[in-house]
Amino acid sequence: MRISAVFFDVDGVLLDSAGAHRRVWDAWAAARGLDPEKVWELTFGRRPEDTVRDVAAHLDPVAERRALDRLLAQEMGDIQPVEGARELLDSLSGGPWAIVTSGARDFVAARFAATGLALPAVQVYAGDVRHAKPAPDCFALAASRLGVPASECLVVEDAPAGIQAAVAAGCIAVGLTTTHTEEALGQARVCVASLADVRKLLTAYGFGAGRSPVR
Q: Would residue 60 show up in a list of annotated catalytic residues for this protein?
């Protein structure tokens, strides 16, 4: 198996944001008379607008996204890196990598800056593609921007929608069991329990320090 680039989801993979997002979605659902549990199940790995369309088709998804962003802004201070995130990203020096997320550019940039995580040159956000996860468009775009075949891109995802998108794009999907069980991430090539395990996996395949980035 050849690995020429690595793609990371953000929430649940590099940032421990589940608690903050849960509070946001619970407050939003309660204010609109919706079942918080049913709403929460449909949020992982997806654009907020897409979740709104599924759970409340009568609402304007653009307006609701703005409301959700306002709620999330109040929770930003509680979002911290997942254990091992900084060490893993530091170990990638010389190896091409990207973040591929359903989150918003401004929020991700703010949290990475506040927590000291490095942002890669290639960043793909939900607004960069017409069809977000579980569609493969986001990973296809990241591969194209890095100039590597999707089949040589390893994707680290914590949500079924993200794994589905990676597999559909032809990438090598690795499931990180921070928010979902191994069974829920069953489409992944392999599942691991921590970012330390991801680092070991990449090291085993010779990816990281000493490699020249793809131009």
A: no
